[in-house]
Structure formats: structure tokens, C-alpha cells
Amino acid sequence: MIRFTLGDILNALCSGMAWTLALSGIAFTCGGAAGFGVMLLRISPLALPRRAATAYIEFFQGTPLLMQLFIIFFGISLAGYDISPLAAAVIGLTLYTSAYLAEIWRGCVDALPEGQWEAASCLAMSRLQQLRFVILPQALRIAVPPTVGFSVQVVKGTAVASIIGFMEMTKVGSMLANATYKPLMVYGLVALGYFSVCFPLSLAARSIERSLHVSRVR
Predict the structure, then answer these.
(1) Domain for residue 174, yes or no?
(2) C or N terminus of the chain, fewer CB within 10 Å?
(3) In this structure, are residues 100 and 150 in contact, taking their beta carbons and an 8 Å threshold?
(4) What is the enclosing helix (H) or strand (E) of 63?
(5) Domain holding 177: CATH number?
(6) Is residue 216 domain-resident?
(7) pTM
(8) How many angstroms separate the CA atoms of 94 and 218, rounded?
(9) pLDDT digits (tens, 9 = 90+) for 166-218
(10) Phi first, then psi: what are they for 75, rounded to 5°?
């Protein structure tokens, strides 16, 4: 039987942590870009784009991330195309992230007084100019704290990718637990790894919220 030292376990978990952070960063970046486009459709004055964006958001918010990953990973494979666990995880988490960010940002835009739109319209601005120069700069101030806060959910969501074989921290931890027969220690270290990433992000979101004076009145 192969014996694993604590150093071996930590090195393996650090490798898994690196993949967790990489997947989180890619999903958050790509999901943010896609989410911005979905948000623009969601606030469109035209009914058809709004309905399409609403259906998109409701589907990805109303179904488990695990099911979405299964559909992408096995569905594409059944269609005759090879897809790696990394590619499937990136696609799945990007779609998941984009739906939530789109709705978060739509709420931030809707939080602005209607008079902001009317004032911009009185200046003979086009819809695009209203968004660019008046609405989005103000919405950004409101959107930063919940956006940073949601990044915590993205990091934790990467754990689901272990189900399709992606070697992130949870998958590495599962393999180590089976090999070392020390599940309590291994999963404790995995939990500590997630906490070391998510807790600072949560603190950052609260700090930004206070600094921007957008805390909700409770």
C-alpha cells in the first residue's frame, strides 16, 4: 500500500486548488461577459428579447448545476463529439454564472429612479447613449458588492465539476480520501481550502458595500 505523508496530501490538494481557482476565474470572466449581454436583452424595450432573456435566466436558475453539467458533458458526447471534463465544466459554469449575474445586474439597473431614464431622454440621447453615459455608471456603483459576493458561489460551484471527472480540489480530495483511508482529515483540509478562498471574498464584498454606501436598510 502506498503511504501518503501530510506533505504529499497538501501538494496534491494545492494542485487541485490551482485548478479550482483557474476554473472559477474563467467561468466568472466568461460568465460576466455573457451575463452582460443577457442583461441588455433583459432590459430591452422590445418584448421578444426580454422574454428570451427571461427564459434563459429562469432555466439556469431553476435547474441544478449538476444536471446542467450532465446535459453538457454527456449530451455533447452522445451527439458524437468528444468533450473534456474541463471544457464541459467551463461551458456549464459560464452559463450558470451568466444567468445569475444578468439578473443581479438587471436588478441594479432597475434600482435606479425612472427619472434617470427620462432625464437622459430629454437630452436627446439614444438608448445606447442613455445606458453608456447615465444608467450603467450609476448601476455599477450598486452592482460591485453583490457581484463580488456572487464570486463566492462560483468558487463553491466548481466542486460540482468533480462529478464529471474534472480534477479540481473536491475530486482530488475524494481520491486522496479513498487512497489514504483518512477521509476526515482530507475533507477537513478541502473545506479549509475553500474557506481560505471564500471567506476573504465575502469580507471584500462587505467592505466594498460599506465603502460605496449601498448597504440596505434593515
Answers:
(1) yes
(2) C
(3) yes
(4) none
(5) 1.10.3720.10
(6) no
(7) 0.91
(8) 33
(9) 999 999 999 999 999 999 999 999 999 999 999 999 999 888 878 876 444 44
(10) -65, -45
Amino acid at 164: I
Residue whose grid cell is 430591452: 44
- What would the grid cell of residue 144 be? 460591485
- Residues 107-164: tens digit of each pLDDT: 999 999 988 888 888 888 888 899 999 999 999 989 999 999 999 999 999 999 999 9
Each residue's pLDDT tens digit, 38-82 = 999 999 999 999 999 999 999 999 999 999 999 999 999 899 899
Tally of CB atoms within 10 A around 56: 18
Angle between helices 65-78 and 85-110 (to 10 degrees): 130
pLDDT at 1: 55
Residue 217 belongs to some domain of the structure: no
User: At which residue does the C-alpha cell 450532465 appear?
Assistant: 70
Domain region containing 62: 6-211
Task: Provide the grid cell at 86.
Answer: 474541463
| Number of domains comprising the chain | 1
**Strand, helix or coil at 126?**
coil
How far is residue 117's CA from residue 111's CA, in Å, rounded to a whole number? 12
- pLDDT tens by residue, 85-108: 999 999 999 999 999 999 999 999
Flag whether 13 is in a domain. yes
Give kind and range of the element (H or E) at residue 163: none
Cell 494542485 appears where?
15
Structure letter (DSSP) for residue 213:
T
